[in-house]
């Protein structure tokens, strides 16, 4: 699946601006059953969704925060002060000219319309709780591909949407999947018919503009038998002093022989708590590949997973995490083998700068009754200085005979001699550090679509320049 050689502008600081946009629909602060009723009524949802949301609300209230890791960092989130739903009250526009000026200015600064014209098959732009713009190229829609917001997917395609909604990630999976299930809004719904190979990427862009806000998009992608699709998402938020919460749920379903690639480049401001649940289900000979880049945020907890449900299914997670000063990137992968001859590959690279902390947390499970399963896990960490920290927690359980796994981990530090050597050849300290970091991640960056790989290198350059001194 190839894409054109163009770039999306995702400069590290490009998202750090704010427009005072008045929301016509505002559920207020705090979360009660009344909040859920407000969301359901505003979105004109059916009764089964109201019931689903309220059940999830009670699950969320009953579940404690995770206590086994990063718990002290989560304690500062005050769920009673968060705004759970803000929207203009208008349907997403199909024409860019129809989008309200103040919202259009936001996305034009982020380069979305330009990117769409250049190489994308379709774009959805979400502003706070709802999509403000949604468009798919006619050639793609003529193939029967559905690409709409989750609200429209629920309303107009319930026969496909409801079958898989909440089936890959149940409400009670964790406290934050329950929270998302209670208040979800926005996100993408994609269905690719059997045998259709979408040649160009579909993209969504998620923008948090409001202060004390929680964004809870819900994405469901179904690739029917023998189809192929690549989906790319970008995320930004301006810097506020108060905590902002981003808690998405993403479910992928790859039917027999289908292929899904899901690419994420997040560039969150340092006040964002990014607590996301992402999982795919791969049927016989299907393939799901997560390509993930995490930059920014105060705390990210994200472990994309694949349930390898069909024989010869393949799952892969390729991830890069960069933890700057005062940031914690707690990322990893989950691979659940549930059929014979399934294979999984996890390659994770992290960089810790200043007092930044990067954690890899992985789970690989192969039960004893399976045969011919393979897993490869590689975790490499780079420390920029003596204050930065990295931790690796791989949990690999392979039972029975006839299955194979290999695990490799390394921690390295950029040496003062290496930096000094490069400075002697005319590079600044920041440029020298950037060169070392780009060399460290270069083999993974090549796997990102061309549109993002160039920008990733630019983001790293900016982070390294900003970390000096």
Outline the secondary-structure elements.
Elements (H helix, E strand, L loop, with lengths): L24 E2 L6 H11 L3 H16 L8 H4 L11 E2 L13 H9 L2 H8 L2 E6 L2 E7 L1 H4 L4 E4 H7 L1 H7 L10 H9 L4 E5 L9 E6 L6 E2 L2 E6 L4 E9 L7 E3 L2 E6 L4 E10 L3 E11 L4 E10 L2 E4 L2 E4 L5 E10 L4 E10 L5 E10 L4 E10 L7 E10 L5 E10 L5 E10 L2 H8 L5 H17 L4 H18 L2
Parallel strand pairs: 3-7, 6-9, 7-10, 8-11, 9-12, 10-13, 11-14, 12-14, 13-15, 14-16, 14-17, 15-18, 16-19, 17-19, 18-20, 19-21, 20-22, 21-23, 22-24
Antiparallel strand pairs: 1-2, 3-4, 5-6
Judged by helices, strands and strand pairing, the structural class is alpha/beta
Mean pLDDT: 82
Assembly status: single chain
Report the radius of gyration as a whole number of Å: 21 Å
- Domains counted in the coordinates: how many? 1
Helix proportion: 25-40%
Shape: globular
Report the β-strand fraction as a percent range.
35-45%
Report how far apart the termini are: 42 Å
Low-confidence stretches: 1-21
Strand elements, count: 24
Number of helices: 12
Q: Summarize the main sheet.
A: 12 strands, mixed
């Amino acid at each position: 699946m190839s894409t054109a050689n163009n770039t999306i502008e995702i400069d590290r600081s490009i998202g750090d601006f704010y427009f005072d946009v008045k929301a016509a629909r505002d559920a207020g602060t705090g979360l009660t059953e009344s909040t859920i009723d407000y969301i359901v009524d505003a979105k004109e949802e059916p009764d089964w969704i109201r019931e689903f949301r309220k059940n999830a609300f009670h699950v969320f209230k009953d579940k404690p925060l995770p206590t086994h890791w990063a718990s002290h960092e989560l304690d500062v989130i005050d769920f009673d002060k968060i705004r759970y739903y803000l929207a203009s009250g208008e349907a997403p526009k199909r024409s860019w000219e129809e989008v309200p000026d103040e919202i259009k200015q936001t996305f034009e600064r982020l380069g979305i319309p330009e990117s769409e014209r250049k190489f994308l098959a379709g774009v959805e732009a979400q502003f706070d709780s709802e999509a403000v713009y949604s468009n798919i190229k006619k050639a793609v829609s003529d193939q029967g591909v559905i690409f709409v917001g989750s609200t429209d997917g629920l309303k107009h395609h319930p026969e496909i949407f409801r079958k898989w909604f909440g089936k890959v990630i149940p409400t009670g999976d964790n406290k934050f999947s329950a929270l998302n299930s209670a208040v979800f809004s926005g996100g993408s719904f994609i269905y690719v018919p059997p045998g259709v190979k979408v040649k160009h990427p579909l993209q969504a862009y998620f923008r948090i503009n409001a202060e004390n806000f929680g964004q809870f998009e819900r994405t469901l992608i179904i690739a029917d038998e023998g189809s192929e699709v690549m989906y790319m998402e970008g995320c930004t938020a301006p810097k506020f002093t108060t905590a902002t919460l981003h808690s998405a749920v993403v479910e992928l379903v790859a039917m027999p022989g289908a292929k899904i690639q899901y690419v994420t480049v997040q560039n969150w401001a340092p006040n964002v708590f990014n607590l996301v649940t992402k999982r795919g289900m791969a049927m016989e000979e299907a393939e799901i590949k997560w390509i993930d880049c995490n930059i920014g945020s105060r705390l990210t907890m994200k472990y994309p997973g694949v349930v390898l449900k069909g024989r010869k299914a393949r799952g892969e997670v390729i991830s890069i995490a960069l933890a700057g000063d005062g940031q914690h990137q707690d990322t990893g992968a989950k691979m659940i083998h549930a059929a014979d001859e399934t294979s999984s590959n996890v390659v994770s690279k992290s960089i810790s700068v200043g007092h930044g902390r990067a954690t890899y947390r992985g789970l690989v499970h192969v039960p004893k009754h399976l045969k011919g399963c393979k897993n490869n896990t590689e975790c490499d960490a780079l420390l920029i200085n003596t204050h930065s920290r990295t931790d690796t927690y791989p949990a690999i359980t392979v039972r029975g005979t006839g299955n194979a796994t290999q695990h490799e981990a390394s921690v390295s530090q950029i040496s003062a001699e290496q930096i000094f050597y490069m400075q002697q050849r005319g590079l600044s300290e920041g440029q020298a550090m950037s060169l070392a970091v780009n060399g460290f991640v270069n083999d993974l960056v090549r796997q990102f679509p061309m549109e993002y790989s160039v920008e990733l290198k630019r983001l790293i350059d900016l982070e390294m320049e900003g970390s000096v001194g």
